[in-house]
Design goal:
Layout lengths: L9 H23 L2 H87 L1 H21 L2
Amino acid sequence: MLGKEHFMNRDQIEGGIRNIRGRGRSAIGALTGRPRPQLEGAYEQVAGVAQSTYGRVQERAERLHRDGRDFAGDAAERGRRFRDDASERGRALRDDVVQRGRRYGREVNDRGHAVYARAEENKGATLALIAAAAFGLGWALSRRR
């Protein structure tokens, strides 16, 4: 896959030209029977292929660098979204716990007031109940010895 856009860099273009020029020189040397132009042409071809290959490798390295930078940016963005989502959920949970705590606190307070009001209405019965409970607890603890 070539990515979004594919442009040849300077080394790829110059390497391709050098390769073609070397082929031409080798062909002319072969036609004229002169070994030196053939040899120089072969050298130009090899150098052109090497330069073009270097250009492709350089382009690929740049693309990998860009892709890596984009991947890291995406990962950082996902991390920020995850953090924000967790923070939002944590706040919602905290708010729910605080709200329930207040409701339970009011309920306990109301029930405590109701028990207190009954105890005040029936002072004699309440004192007798407390005395019986204290006697029973004392009796149970004394039997353990």
